Amino acid sequence: MFPVIKNDLIAPKLHRLVVSAPRVAVARKAGQFVIVRQGVGEERIPLTIGDADPQEGTITLFVQAIGTSTQKIVNTPAGGSLLDVAGPLGMPTEIKTWGRVACVGGGVGTAVLYPMAKALAAAGNEVTTIIGGRSKSIIILADELAAFSHDLRISTDDGSAGCKGFVTDSLGSLLVDEAVRPQAVLAVGPAGMMRAVAEQTRPYGIHTVVSLNPIMIDGTGMCGGCRVQIGDEIKFACVDGPEFDGHQVHFDGLVKRLAMYKAHEENCRLLAS
Q1: Residue 27, Cβ density class (10 Å: 0-12 exposed, 13-18 middle, ≥19 buried)
Q2: How confident is the model over 229-233, as a mean pLDDT?
Q3: Alpha-carbon dihedral sign for residues 104, 105, 109, 112
Q4: For residue range 211-226, what is the model confidence (pLDDT) as tens digits?
């Protein structure tokens, strides 16, 4: 069992859980994830490790309640526990000194972006962080990101926080200015957003990494559920990723796989309500 130390609601349906998992906390690197089960017989849920404190033996998980299983996880109070926390899994983020790096997060993708951007800044990069969402209510971790970002830019669809528009608008203003143009871009968010970022950077030949979240079951490459097409190859997001060259990702296939079980998810939600 893995005790839940804290459980805070930080945005609508989005919780930040601090969980006691000493071995994971010591071993984890930026970009890796865990597979979580709330209880016996429950679904296995992949969650990025948002942060870790090796001395305290804790990890931080950001969980969006979008289905029955994630709702059960966020309903676990401080003092409760999770049955399984398996990890760290996946390949870590490639951390090197690029120079100028733009880290782009859309919606809940900002939570996944946070540890990657933090590690890139710690490696000596000048990090410009661009985050966005539909409205102010779903802008998360702005203060935490500002603490290590050279520049933090916020965009909202309705203009309720930062600039009105999309994260791609802010990124575009960086790309056209050679004085601030990044040498690398990291994007995490909805598939459509990541595709748009990759297409923006393609003409400039900028190294662009995206973090993919296809359907995942075991997290070890055995089930094949998380397969994605990268260039001419088939890769598994759980063991080969979750981060890949954004210019090589077959986004049409990814979008189709992400939509495969939407109807089933809605049925499960209705049955559980």
Answers
A1: middle
A2: 93
A3: positive
A4: 998 777 777 777 787 8
Q: How much of the chain is in helix, strand and coil states, percent to nearest 5?
A: 30, 35, 35
CA 20/CA 81 separation, integer angstroms: 9
Residue ranges making up the domain that contains 22: 2-89
Q: What pTM did the predictor assign?
A: 0.89
Domain count, the chain: 2
CB atoms within 10 A of CB 113: 27
No. of helices (H) and no. of strands (E), the chain: 9, 16
CA distance 108 to 165: 17
Each residue's pLDDT tens digit, 143-179: 999 999 999 999 999 999 888 999 999 999 999 999 9
E-strand stretches of the chain: 2-11, 14-20, 33-37, 45-53, 58-64, 81-82, 84-89, 100-106, 126-133, 151-156, 163-164, 184-188, 207-211, 227-230, 233-236, 243-245
Which pLDDT does position 268 carry in this prediction?
Answer: 56
Closest CA to 63 of 140, 142, 133: 140
DSSP output for 193-240: HHHHHHHHHGGGT-EEEEE-----SSSSSSS-TTEEEETTEEEEHHHH
Picking from 48, 63, 89, the residue at the C-terminal end of a domain is 89
Main-chain phi, psi angles of 146, to 5 degrees: -65, -25
- Whole-number pLDDT of residue 219: 77
Does residue 220 fall inside a structural domain? no
Q: Does 227 have pLDDT greater than 70?
A: yes
Examine residue 22 and say whether the peptide bond preceding it is cis (omega within 30 degrees of 0): no
**Nearest-angstrom CA–CA distance, 74 and 104:** 26
- CATH number of the domain encompassing residue 66: 2.40.30.10
